[in-house]
Write a structure and sequence with these properties.
Length: 430
């Protein structure tokens, strides 16, 4: 049980951390991609505003007529920001770092001019082919291979501006791989640390379990002595006088308490995997039929119909004693809580590659809420406490659940159409 709790704790931490790191990595990559795309859009806007040319932030004296030899700014930085937006990434060097080409179309749709002066990897023929492909698509903007393009109106027709985005694409990919690598490494490191420290986390639970186990052991031994004395005294009373309803009642209560002590001890040992299970191949059909048959007489005493629907020759590998005990728990539970004059069916059938055992009884008013809670120790539905004075302690189904876990089988409870079913499904047949 402790190992299972420890594994569950590590699993929860690992999944939570994986989700958080994944979300952080995704958010960072989305922001990075958005920022790069935004910069590309600003470049497109700037080139479109200048009719397919990259604007010069500065020009020398031979273009301005100034013989001083000093560069003369076209516009003040504040004026450039108001014209092109807040572009902290665009400066005087951006022109020489940007690779693009422009294809101009006339109003009749024919290529009029091609400007590849700002790119070395594309010649006029390739530029014309890409431009025609973009024009045929009918889209205002898009992506072809490593180029992003945008359509814009020019002075005498339209133009297609192609921006070489290979650097941005490489940056996005590199950023993605780095973020994934760092996130994966961080996840592994933290999970390893959690696995190493998980023992300390569950240490208080281990201490509590040990105290509970010790209490059950001590209490069981302490209870056995007075039970033996009471049993002996009852026998003496019956020997010296006639047996009466009072002595019979006392003997019944002794029997119940003795059964409770044994069940508590067995459950405590099963929690700590101290019960020695002997897994062998055996005939499950025979075991179920033999065990269930013992409950036919008590069922008929209560006026209930008792039916066996068991396929022959079904074999599994498991602990025969524990399985027989589980069948008895299911059958006893059905006899106690079946509706008056109802029907009880013990079924054993092939189920996919395995076998499914089910004990079904009529129950017009099944317990409300989550039926899986019936397998919790000491849990009993309110209505069930009043039925037939059964007086159970609510640990039988807990033992059945522990048996299912030991066999890696699935235990469940369902209620529909006025019947309630307790089932145990084994994954594989022998």
């Amino acid at each position: 049980m402790i190992k299972k709790l420890q594994r569950k704790f590590v699993l929860i931490v690992a999944l939570t951390l994986l989700f958080v790191l994944g979300a952080v990595a995704a958010a960072i990559n989305i922001v990075n991609s958005y920022q790069l795309t935004k910069n590309e859009d600003e470049l497109f806007e700037m080139i479109c505003d200048n009719n397919g040319k990259f604007p010069d932030f500065f020009r020398d004296d031979k273009h301005s007529g100034d013989m001083s030899g000093e560069p003369v700014p076209i516009a003040k930085p504040s004026e450039r920001r108001s014209s092109f937006g807040d572009r902290h990434t665009i400066n005087e060097e951006t022109k020489y770092q940007t690779r693009f080409f422009v294809v101009y179309f006339s109003s009749s749709g024919e290529i009029k001019n091609i400007d590849t002066g700002q790119i070395a990897s594309v010649d006029s023929d390739a530029a014309a082919e890409l431009a025609q492909q973009a024009k045929d698509s009918g889209k205002e903007k898009g992506t072809i291979d490593i180029f992003r393009y945008i359509r814009s109106d020019s002075d005498s027709g339209e133009m297609y501006i192609f921006l070489d985005c290979r650097q941005d694409m490489a940056t996005k990919q590199r950023f993605l791989l780095i973020s994934i690598g760092i996130s994966a490494a961080s996840w592994v490191i933290v999970v390893v640390i959690v696995m190493l420290l998980s023992g300390r986390v569950v240490k208080p639970v281990i201490a509590a379990q040990e105290k509970q186990k010790q209490f059950i052991t001590d209490a069981s031994h302490e209870i056995k002595t007075p039970l033996a004395i009471i049993s002996a005294n009852t026998e003496v009373i019956e020997m010296t006088s006639e047996p009466s309803e009072w002595t019979e009642s006392t003997k019944n209560q002794i029997k119940r308490l003795d059964g409770l002590v044994k069940d508590l001890m067995r459950l405590a040992k099963m929690d700590e995997s101290e019960v020695r299970t002997e897994f062998i191949k055996f005939d499950l059909s025979e075991t179920v039929a033999k065990t269930a048959a013992e409950f036919e007489a008590p069922a008929r005493t209560h006026g209930e119909q008792f039916e066996l629907d068991i396929d022959e020759g079904l074999e599994i590998t498991g602990d025969k004693t524990l399985i027989a005990q589980t069948v008895g728990i299911f059958a006893d539970n059905a006899v106690k809580y079946c509706d008056e004059g109802g029907r009880i069916t013990v079924s054993l059938k092939p189920y996919h590659k395995g076998v499914r055992l089910a004990v079904i009884n009529d129950c017009k008013n099944p317990p409300e809420g989550d039926l899986s809670r019936l397998f919790d120790r000491f849990y009993r539905a309110d209505e069930a406490r009043e039925r037939k004075g059964s007086g159970g302690y609510g640990i039988g189904l807990s033992i059945a659940k522990a048996t299912a876990e030991a066999h890696r089988a699935k235990i469940s409870c369902t209620a529909e159409n006025g019947r309630i079913s307790f089932s145990l499904t084994f994954k594989e047949r022998a």
